[in-house]
Amino acid sequence: MHRSQLRWWSALLGLLLILLPGLEVSLQAQERRARRRVRYTVPSYAEPAAKDSEAGEDRAVRAVAAEALGKLNGSVIVVEAGSGRVLTIVNQPLALSAGFKPCSTIKLAVGLGALEEGLITGDTVLRVSRYKSLNLTEALAYSDNPFFEILGQRMGFQKVSSYARLLGFGELAGYLIEDEYPGSFPTEPPVNGGVARMSSYGEEIKVTPLQLAALMAAFANGGTLYYLQYPRTDEIPNPFRPRVKRYLPIQRWLPELRAGMEAAVLYGTARVSADAEEHILGKTGTCGEERAKLGWFASYGELSTGERLVVVVLLRGGSQLSGGKAAAVAGQVYRGLSQTHLLANEGRDTPAAAASE
Question: How far is 118 from 98, CA to CA, in rounded Å?
Answer without folding.
Answer: 34
